[in-house]
Write a structure and sequence with these properties.
By secondary structure, the protein is mainly alpha-helical. It contains ten helices and no strands. Keywords: Membrane, Transmembrane, Transmembrane helix.
Amino acid sequence: MSQQHPDDRDSERATSAADVFGAALSGAARKAGFDPNDSRTTGHVVWHAMGGWRGVIESVLPSLAFLLVYTLSTNLPWALGISVGTALLFTVVRFVQRQPPSAALGGLVAVAVAAALALFTGRAQDNFVPGLIINGVYASGLLISALIGWAIIGVAVGFLMGEGTAWRADKRKRRVFFWLTIAWAGLFAARLAVQLPLYLAGNVAALGTLKLVMGLPLFAPLVALTWLTVRALYRSAPE
């Protein structure tokens, strides 16, 4: 009775984990409108990925409300209350209109957790701690996935395109997905590198402003770049 080599078992486990993770990622990407098989324009895809006007407003307004109220009044409870209230309003409206509340609900949870932390410590800059942590986790996860040969962008796209993890056998695809994943890791790392010193300095106004500036304005071009690169990669692939 033959025994399986440990390296083979490790490879199978990695592939199995990638299957589960890739299916989840591709499902989320498809729901967000990011499907390379789609014939829509790049602008439409990017706009859909941001959630349209509603998604942009739901993403920006709670943070903007906190920044404006705190900058003008330095009243932390009021600033946090208005920020959480704004996110709560968006969620309630979606429920009333019987629309999928997932995006607004996720935003509400994030805003509420951040507000609870800031209210507990009494420091306004702690309202940004969850965002800093998320940037660090995303940057690390993306970078590690690229370095070990399982680039997250490749895993997601592979399942979107119906080829699973077969892209790993194609040197060109592996190279493209490596650099795309590095680019996304760079985005989150850049946010952390710029915002962390401001957090440590307690500069709430600059921190809040740069969080907004480095949010959707940087996210949208990178979505467009990823979309165009992936479409070009698969359109030029041999049949």
